[in-house]
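Hello forum,

I keep getting stuck at the same step: I have a sequence, I want structure tokens, and every attempt I make locally crashes halfway through. Rather than fight my setup again tonight, could one of you with a working pipeline run this one for me? It's a single chain of 469 residues.
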Amino acid sequence: MSLLVDNIGELSTCVGEPLSDAAVAIDGYEIAWVGPSGDAPSCDERVDAGGRAVIPGFVDSHSHLVFTGDRSAEFAARMAGRPYTAGGIRTTVAAVRGADDETLRANVRKHRAEMLRQGTTTVEIKSGYGLTVDDEARALRIASEFTSETTYLGGHIVPPEADADEYTALVAGDMLMSCLPYARWADVFCDRGAFDVEQAREILTAARDAGLGLRVHGNQLQHGPGVRLAVELGAASVDHCTFLSDADVEALADGDTVATLLPGVEFSTRSPFPDAKRLLDAGVTVALASDCNPGSCYSSSMPLMIAFAVRDMGMTVEQALWAATAGGARALRRDDLGVVAVGKRADLVILDAPSFVHLAYRPGVPLVHSVVHDGKIVDMALTRRLTFVRAASVARMGSKVWRYVSKPHQRPQVAAGKDSVDAVLDRVRLRSPRGVDSVGRRLRLHDQVRLDPGPGLRGPDRAVGRAAH
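Reply #2:
Ran it on my machine without issues. Output:
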């Protein structure tokens, strides 16, 4: 099936200058043609953008969606300058450990749907709120139902019941092995109150030896070794980068590690924003991400991150858009995402605005008119519910199967077992997308990548020296 999106007033491809009166032709799941509307090829279906701006789908390369519970009282106290001693991240750890699978799954589903409505077509999801072998593996198993970009973050903090060195050995050993089947990446928080550089190195080296790509939380709370450790070990991304020395910036500029900035954290914790202009002027590759989590940034809005970056971090709107799309793809080492170009994945966002500049010009306004994801239209007026169904294993293929499907009037059901998988396979055609993760090639049930009609849309804890994720 082919699809033409034409009558685009301004097309931001993130690989060159914006195009006027443009069109994008899609064949299946990839972009097949980009150019002037008047020269567009014929396609099976057509979407008239109505002169609106079109951008690539946002790539959110840092999130913590596997959680439950509420920490709004902590946020209110922080904003009022009052002390709050109810536990911070440990509150979320306790809530996650006590929750059943469906509670966690429903929360991820809700936030993933929220992200899609705001134009985020690709998201990375971390574990890190279980901090036991079983709970971390469970978090990643649930996360893998929603994205192939899953990150093992057993090295988030040391749980209160554990010795730091013993817990580090667990994260680098048995916990890693249990989480390996569900993870593409491994991450560690190398900062004050979390893991020191040698502990972080032990965890990251073990993960790299096991075949996982590396990511690092670093230099959020103070100047420290996190950035240089990330560059030394060849991590794809080092995230936060709030406090940087000249040596840190030089290391990033000389290496391949992306500096992923998370301005929602600085907003939500009333902390200094990272200096994006300093990094860009030095030639560092910069990404923007939400860091959506219940403690230090409970926002899933990439447009809001763009507005923060432009207002408070010295980025131009063009730079911020690139960082939230192509930059995020670089942080995930994906060359099929984040740009509008032939051969790339067909993820587009149609804005209810004449220019992408409105993303920063009109902060807080819901400007996403509609979304094209994997070459399929997601009609934003049809449903608020996004349900992912995944079979834990398909023995005859050694693969995972997952799909998007809307069940607006029913409680979502998760397929499990060979009979359920076979029933699904009998109804749809399979196609393998780009990319292979550590478990195997994911097969998407693309014939079901749509949203069926349903109800319409209405419409660090720095004082104590700990991160507040």
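The radius of gyration is 21 Å. If your local run keeps crashing, start a new thread with the error log.
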